[in-house]
Request: fold
Amino acid sequence: MHKAPYRFSRARAERTIAVARVALAAFSTYAIWLDPAEPARFTQLTYVLHLGYIAYSLALAAVMWSRPSTGWLPITTHVIDIVAFSVFQYLTLGPSSPFFVYFVFSLFCGAVRWGWRGALATAPAVVIAFVLIAVSMSVTLGPAEFELNRFVIRTGYLIVVSMLLVYLGRHEARLREEIRRLAGWPVTRGGDVDTEIKRVLEYAAGIVAAERLVVIWEPDQEPRVQLAVWTPRGFQLTRHASTDFEPWVCEELVRDSFLCAGSTEPPVVTTARHIPIALQSGQPVHARLGMHLGSQPFVSAPFKSERVSGRVFFGELGAATTEVLPLAEVVAREIGSSVDQREMHIRTRQLAIGEERIRVARDLHDGVLQSLTGVRLELQGLASQLHSESLPSVRDRLIAMERALATEQRELRFFIEDLQPIRPDSRPDGTLASKLEELTKHIAAQWKTPITLRLTQLGAALPPEIEQALPPMIHEAVVNALKHGRPSRVSVMLHGDSDGLRVVIGDDGHGFPFEGRYDHGMLVRHNLGPASLCERVASLGGDVSVDSSASGSKVEIRLPVVTHA
Reply:
């Protein structure tokens, strides 16, 4: 049967101390029996006390074998040890005593039991006891027999050992805290995915003690990259074309984690294999990524999951060394898992929205559209039978109703077509501008309200999913303004820039029930504004903001646009 490889490391501290105490007392007793210590008048007393200490150590081992290092008993035994060790040294010439190692044993017991705090608390007691014994022995023996050099050396030895044990205890405490924080890694709950990513990056920066954190990743089989930048002052998540940051890091470092310290020319980086590399191909990272890292040393580690692959940069680390690289690699993998969950949530939501659109389209086609067709045919037949000259107005009204139904039937067919899944090889006829112009004219005629449309700097053709989603989103936003705000005019503006597409629907009506500016996160958290519009926009990776007052409202939609070559 395979044994646990860390069985010894899981042993209780008291069990380890008990075994060490018995062994040390036994060897010391044998040593003074084999070669009696000076002065001769205390040899027998020292020998008897050691035999008693062995018996005490055996009894204490039986009592403490399965006890933790908590409560008053470990503290009591610790104090008894220091007192006993002081007596043994006093009886054997103090600073020249062969039992000086007992004090070192006390320091280790404090560190094993209570970490760096135990070593720090034990050190003054041990040093003071050693100095008092030395002062007493200097008076008793006189300057000729008192070994001052050995006293100075052993005092320095105690201080140095105490400092090293405190340092090792602090180092162990830091490692334990890092493990604890890694174990408490935040789980994405499937809400606002961008907020979840911000929370994850803030948590990761705290583990590595970084003042800046940059993550870039690329979803599999998609020609785009996502860039997330976190600092204590803010968070930004943007989408870009894959070519905007190629290559992320230079060719020598593509598969490695590395530390870049200083700004030497050529730059020198150290990989996780502790191999320094003098780069000959320029800077270690892409210039646009380097702008987000600051001038301080930084660490980078790659990650790859089922749906995404990317790289994490921890910036402004201060006096960073290569010992941070293993931690950076672990944190980078955790960030990769969180990003992978984000992509999974987005794709799951898009799939659910697509299935719901198909269901709604089927229901509209089989239900409302068929009913409208039947009503239209009935009205058309009824109007054709009215030939009496006494009923021209009724006939005209029926014809007008039939035409209105025909218009609504056509709009409903367009709406059903928009709900169908997007096929890359099948794009709707007509340009986006003509569709939006026809849409706004129809809404203006129906609501008897002027609607102005302005398109600027749209540039190249938009991706099919955005071009298909824009008309129904604008329709919903305009109709919401007309229905609830009662404005005298409405404006629709589309503007393209380097960050994507900006759509603004403004009106001079009564505004929303709330006043002020609300961004996407606030609208979702407080369940305000056009909920379905927010969901439509979020499914495309964009966001909605609303500015409302008693004199009107403005709904702003921002959509990231990645043009394909």
